[in-house]
Amino acid sequence: MPTKLTHAAATWLTAVTLSLVARVNAPATANRSATDDHDRGDVPGWVMITVMTAIVVIALLAVFREQVVTAVQNAFQSVSGAR
């Protein structure tokens, strides 16, 4: 069950993501001319994907922190016990 803190964190992360995406995309489209090099790739798209992936990981860790810690500890114990 999400708490007020989890909801506030998710709201804040959403606002930060939208702000970053807007800042990354604005200069890329505003300063382009017909003579620009078209081989530079889709940098704003990759930045957006990276930022959104980080936000998803942070949100999942905020909600399922105990389960993730337990799973990682169990994995390390099983690996160290197998040797």
Topology:
Elements: H1 4-30, H2 43-82
Helix pairs in contact: 1-2
Detailed description of the structure:
It is a single chain. Helix 1 (4-30) crosses helix 2 (43-82). By secondary structure, the protein is an all-alpha fold. Helices cover 81% and strands 0% of the residues. The chain has two helices and no strands. The mean pLDDT is 79. It is flat, with a radius of gyration of 20 Å. 0% of the residues are buried. It has one domain (4-28, 43-82). The longest helix has 40 residues, at 43-82. The protein has helices at residues 4-30, 43-82.
Summary of the model, kept short:
The protein has about 80 residues and is mainly α. The chain has helices spanning about 5-30, 45-80.
